[in-house]
Write a structure and sequence with these properties.
The chain contains five helices and seven strands. By secondary structure, it is α/β, with parallel strands linked by helices.
Amino acid sequence: MELVFATNNQHKIKEISPLINGSFHLLSLNDIKCNDEIPEEQPTIEGNASQKSHYIYEKFEINCFADDTGLEIEALNGEPGVFSARYAGEGCSFQDNIDKVLGKMHGEINRKARFRTVISLLIDGKEVQFEGIVNGIILTEKYGEDGFGYDPIFMPDGYGISFAEMTLEDKNQISHRGIATRKLVDYLNKI
């Protein structure tokens, strides 16, 4: 089976490729000659994942999946949430987003947070969603060089290091995207 991963984010492709482990043939947007900026205009993570997968399925008539992820910080009433990728504004960098979170969290005692990923799979027009959640805390500064996004300031519960200090293999065992991707693979292996 061939499935397109509806993302332009090479970090995400690198992260989930080992989890798929040959269960299906993963195609990128480049493989289907899609250079579009896929819309993300929904008010929820579930809505964005669904909008992205429907966009690719309807335009290219190919089975696909898309994900959306949010960092939800308890003290910030769930922010940045659905706006995680552009929290510091349109065209912002990972560092801009991290700086905004650290600024808002300065002096905050409650550092509880969670990463949440939703994957929307579309096969023959039928949609199924898979969710992955990992709980942790927001650190007071950046640690580590690996990963992407908020990884340097997120420490998962039960660990003494940030996501950015973990190997990809270790992160994939416990991460939100890893959990959701394993659910996707399990589902595909049963159909």
